[in-house]
Amino acid sequence: MGGITVQIRELGWGIAAACLLAAGGHAETMPSPADPHLDLEQVDGARAMATVKAWNARTLDSLEKQPHFVEYQSRALAFLSDTQKIAEPDRVQGGQVLNFWQDAEHPRGLWRSSPLDAFAAGKPVWRTLIDVGALGKAEGRKWVFKGATCLSPAYVKCMVALSDGGGDAVIEREFDMASARFVDGGFSLPEAKTEVSWAGPNALYVGTDFGPGSMTDSGYARIVKLWKRGTPLSAATLVSEGQQSDVSVNARVIVDGGRTWPVVDRGVDFYHHKLSHIARDGRLVPSPLPDDADLDDVLDGRAIATLKSDWQGHKAGSVVAYSIPDALAGKTPAIETVFEPNAHQAVEDVGAGKSVVWVKLLDDVSGRLVALSRAANGTWSGQPIALADKSTIHLDAAASDSDMAFATVEGMLTPPTLYRVTPGAAPAAVQALPAKFDASNMVVEQHFATSKDGTKVPYFLVHRKDLKGPVPAYMHAYGGFELAQTPTYLINEPYRSGPAALYWVEEGNAYVLANIRGGGEYGPAWHDAALREKRQNAYDDLYAVAEDLVKAGITQKGRIAVSGRSNGGLMASVAITQRPDLFGAAIIGSPLTDMKRFSHLLAGASWMGEYGNPDVPADWAFISKYSPYQNLKAGVRYPTPFIYTSTRDDRVHPGHARKFAARLEDLHDPFFYYEAIEGGHAAGVEPKEDALRAALVTTYLNLELPKSAAK
Q1: Straight-line distance from the first to the last Cα atom of the chain, in angstroms, rounded to the nearest whole number
Q2: 289 class by beta-carbon count within 10 Å (0-12 exposed, 13-18 middle, 19+ buried)
Q3: Distance in angstroms (rounded) separating the CA atoms of residues 436 and 79
Q4: Which end of the chain is more exposed for a tag (fewer CB within 10 A), N or C?
Q5: How far apart are CA 215 and CA 526, in angstroms?
Q6: What residues contact 19, with CB distance under 8 A and at least 6 apart?
Q7: CA 638, CA 477: separation in Å to the nearest integer?
Q8: Are 210 and 225 in contact (CB under 8 A)?
Q9: pLDDT tens-digit map of 88-144
């Protein structure tokens, strides 16, 4: 590390950081002077913001004039603000269901609760706990709700996280559920990337910014302390600490019926964790799990975890269990197989009820839900839950004091239905939405393309039944971090620009969801196949899907829009630099583009496990082959992209999007750019912002993709 980081240590953190931040920058490594657009990394810098505002104005002036813009926007706002939507349970605790709700009247949202019995019967009785908009207005802040951690078993005391503007940094304040008020003189933590959990009625485990040296290079807590009520935070005692190069260190407390099990999770990199159980006397007892396993939950004193690699005879992707009391007693616990997926399956989510483990999995990218129970001899058996095929299943919440869980099921053309599920019983619909659009003339198909190395890559294709190709195609993908892309109702996903996909299909075009490698569609191996030096596999998969669409006569080269957000924004940027002949448009959301600098910007250091370390010459050798910012070249006719991000994104630095646009401007290549001031990494806080983006995306697609076949 060098540059400003070293200068800060020499000059004194406060003085040097103040100088840098006053200019709108960040206390990070000094970048190379060879980059002509470094000023755009100054988030609130005067020149950077002037540039952003000019680009925003130019984009709005152009796209808002396009046909049907107002119609697209107003219809999207109606969809996204509709009060007739699923009230998905965020958590079930203490006989209550918690839910965060947004609508036209409450765009900032309501945090609310209902008695479990009433909710499960489909007749919730809601009680507002926090009106986020009203709170922000009263306190003069642009509060965004970021969740709450509540103390079991009474679940009356909670620590509520609020972000000013939508970023990952939050303040934490103690809240009383009974009175629905913040506790005067209660626990309170200032703004930082903080993680808290309850260590008892009067103590918290806290990972936060304790001052110089307490944060990792990734910008997260390096130190976890135990903070007791009635004492200053400075008096908190050390529980655990990691290395500066770690991603983060945090402590969490897992509820297991009437018991709790505290653990410390030291994230060495994005995919490797040193997990330790906290004994009653404060000792840290290492877990027997391998470093790349994920601890999911605890059931009857047994840790339930998902493996990412083969281990002790258990296959990668399997769910395993072991006795925590045995580990705390110094014994070597037996490792039990809870669930082992086959070659077509991937475990996505695991949660524990009172006596069962719920496993949500994919089977050729279709959702499945299984309830698994343990026999006295340590063997586990499963009961599949009869839910719709070829759908996405969301395991919303599982009650820890019963074997009731809630799952939402949806498909691209099938509106969501929330089910109450219990082992051995037919699922009971709690709330079913009516259709929000006419899908009678639409069809969803699943196809498989063959990638460059022979791998079969699935993708979903949505179009009108009367399709007569070739037509323009809008193709969305992600391809990273073992995050699967599954088919959701066309109006529901703001990260995919909400109802833009619906508009596209209604108007006679094709929408595609590509399940390229790097995601979790087929478990750890599908992800590993695109890690680090193998990243090109994900992009080759993308091109294979696009070429399969051309071969099938669905579309043509130059009439395909590639779409992605975050890591998917990187993918879309790569796509137009590597294959400008194949794509005619690109929707590039909250992207990484400067892969030489990504590890020095905000949380970027935490993703080196995914991409590699660009400061290591051997890693830069393969990263440099696809890094979009560096690979834009003069004399190439690139598709005109639509680039969007948020000023308040404190995860993926907005400088990535800004610099990519600036480089295009240097080359005299056109682009559209829109940067929301609020929104964090989601690039939107209120429904109106997502509705605006849906309208911008749709009019952009109509403008850039030719409707008639190429001559």
Answers
A1: 55
A2: buried
A3: 8
A4: C
A5: 32
A6: none
A7: 20
A8: yes
A9: 999 999 999 999 999 889 999 999 999 999 999 999 999 999 999 999 999 999 999
Q: Mind giving me the DSSP string for 584-615?
A: SEEEEES----TTTGGGSGGGGGGHHHH--TT
For 11, 295, 308, the CA distances from 272, given in Å and listed in that order, are 34, 12, 10
Integer Cα distance of 479 and 325 in angstroms = 39
**Cα–Cα distance for residue pair 99/113, rounded to 1 Å:** 6
* Contact in structure between 463 and 510 (CB atoms under 8 Å): yes
**126 and 106 Cβ atoms separated by less than 8 Å:** no
User: What are residue 306's DSSP bridge partners?
Assistant: 294, 319
Whether the Cβ atoms of residue 553 and residue 495 lie closer than 8 Å to each other = no
The single residue of 273, 394, 527, 681 carrying the catalytic annotation is 681
Starting at the edge strand that comes first in sequence, how are the strands of the sheet with 510-514 ordered? 442-450, 456-464, 510-514, 473-476, 560-565, 585-589, 641-646, 672-676
β-bridge pairing 157-164 and 170-176: antiparallel
Q: What is the DSSP letter of 163?
A: E
> How far is it, in rounded angstroms, from Cα 335 to Cα 25?
49
SS3 (DSSP) at 292: coil
Q: Reduce the secondary structure of 481-511 to three states and give it as a string.
A: CCCCCCCCCCCCCHHHCCCHHHHHHHCCCEE
Residues 6+ apart with CB under 8 A from 73: 691, 692, 694, 695
- The model carries a pTM of 0.88
* 57 DSSP 8-state letter: H
How big is the CA angle at 271 (ends 269 and 275), to the nearest 5 degrees? 80
**Residue among 126, 73, 66, 116 at smallest CA distance from 95:** 116
What is 31-77+436-704's CATH number, 3.30.160.250, 3.40.50.720, 3.40.50.1820, 3.30.1950.10?
3.40.50.1820
Catalytic-residue membership of 681: yes
Q: Using CA atoms, how far apart are residues 532 and 204, in angstroms rounded to an integer?
A: 38
Q: Which of 142, 147, 97, 140 is nearest to 117 (CA)?
A: 97
CB 137 within 8 A of CB 143: no
Specify burial of residue 522 (Cβ count, 10 A radius: 0-12, 13-18, 19+): buried
Indicate the domain borders of the chain.
Answer: 1-30, 31-77+436-704, 84-334
d(CA 87, CA 77): 18
One of 152, 566, 627, 646 is an active-site residue; which one? 566
Q: What's the rounded Cα separation, in Å, for the pair 67 and 667?
A: 29
Q: What is the pLDDT of residues 343-361, one digit of tens each?
A: 999 999 999 999 999 999 9
Fold of 84-334: Methylamine Dehydrogenase; Chain H (2.130.10)
pLDDT tens per residue, range 257-282: 889 999 999 999 989 999 999 999 99
Question: Can 245 be counted among the known catalytic residues?
Answer: no
Tell me if residue 409 falls in helix, strand or coil. Answer: strand
Q: Do 589 and 645 meet the contact criterion of CB atoms below 8 Å apart? A: yes
> What DSSP assignment string belongs to 333-400?
PPPEEEE---TTEEEEEEEE-SS-EEEEEEETTEEEEEEEEE-TTS-EEEEE----SSSEEEEEEE-T
Q: What is the reported pLDDT for 437?
A: 96
Mean pLDDT to the nearest integer, 358-385 = 96
Give percent helix, percent strand, percent coil of the chain, each to the nearest 5. 25, 30, 45
CA 624 – CA 608 distance, rounded (Å): 14
